[in-house]
Amino acid sequence: MTGVEVKVEGLTKSFGPANIWSDVTLTLPAGEVSVLLGPSGTGKSVFLKTLIGLLKPEKGSIMIHGTDLVRCNESTLYEIRKLFGVLFQDGALFGSMNLYDNIAFPLREHTRKSETQIRDIVFEKMELVGLRGDENKLPGEISGGMKKRAGLARALVLEPEILLFDEPDSGLDPVRTAYLNQTIIDLNAQTDSTCLIVTHDINTAQTVPGNIGLLYRKHLAMFGPREQLLTSEEPVVAQFLNGRRQGPIGMSEEKDSAQAEREMAEAGELEGLPPLKPQLAASPGMPDRQAVHRRRERVEAMMHELPEPTQRAIRESYDRAPEPMVTGPRHTLAEDPPTDVYPRIRD
Ligand SMILES: Nc1ncnc2c1ncn2[C@@H]1O[C@H](COP(=O)(O)OP(=O)(O)O)[C@@H](O)[C@H]1O
Ligand SMILES: [Mg+2]
């Protein structure tokens, strides 16, 4: 299986009179991992829901395999939706179903597989996310982190070509977040699926994706190779990456620019951008990530259009071999990882 390109052009979404974002144009390159950043309430979740056809935009197109999701009929949309695996913010599990049935649900709904075949797949995915043994638990009986992992297992059972993650790391401790990030990279190595991760976690943005976008002030402020955003001197980017108060982003909504400028002046010299971190590599034993090679070719071809600091950062990254997070025994997302892998921590 190889990933598929998702080409979004001129997308605009409003709810009644309230415009959420306008003219969003980006291409998720086939099989690559991309991250979407943005202050809370800028419409990142709305964007993911629009991508899978749950919400209708007023303008623009979303092309997948030559079909425009915005304009196709219901039955085509139903077929195209099967290409997607989505991990919603809270896992979106059915409260009255145990974890096994929740994870088996898409297989029973969309395939003609026998219960024996379904069991093999469900157990495999539950093993992958560290939930084996928890089949009979109800969503109400488990922690937020376990719900996310169950949601991830459910997102994976149909072997999706496109994986969308809505803040997979919110509510997870830093160790679990690191494991989850490693799992995403390992999945990408194994399946070459096109991934889009919405996150607030700076470390995730710095180490996981090949491409980063930023939704800001109702527009896609930026979308490109990770080095482009991570070396950008835009105040909003520096504020985001450093997680600081001074800058264009306010608490309740985006500040007016006069106030932002006043604060920047009062704060004086602010720290610049954090240093670029090496990218996470797949765990030992995983297949070579095809997307890494395709991305390198793609970025080389667009190099001359990129700002000088971005070009420098990209060239430097070639000399730094990416490293997996763990090099010991197979990593785990389970609640109680073996103590030789990581100290015992619960979520
Ligand atoms: N179904 C809906 N109907 C009306 N407004 C909505 C709906 N879904 C989201 N919104 C609004 O869209 C805006 C963006 O929401 P959301 O995508 O959840 O932001 P983010 O995920 O970036 O934090 C919010 O103001 C929210 O209230
Ligand atoms: Mg959201």
From TrEMBL:
Keyword presence, Transport: yes
Designated name of the protein: Phospholipid/cholesterol/gamma-HCH transport system ATP-binding protein
Keyword check for Transport: yes
ABC transporter domain: residues covered: 6-242
Region (Disordered) location: 247-347
Keywords carried by this UniProt record: ATP-binding, Nucleotide-binding, Transport
Pfam families tied to this protein: ABC_tran
Domain of life assignment: Bacteria
Family matches, as PANTHER family: INTERMEMBRANE PHOSPHOLIPID TRANSPORT SYSTEM ATP-BINDING PROTEIN MLAF (PTHR43023:SF6), PROTEIN TRIGALACTOSYLDIACYLGLYCEROL 3, CHLOROPLASTIC (PTHR43023)
Basic and acidic residues compositional bias, start-end: 252-265, 297-322
Single GO molecular function: ATP hydrolysis activity
InterPro entries: AAA+_ATPase, ABC_transporter-like_ATP-bd, ABC_transporter-like_CS, P-loop_NTPase
CDD domains associated with the record: ABC_Org_Solvent_Resistant (cd03261)
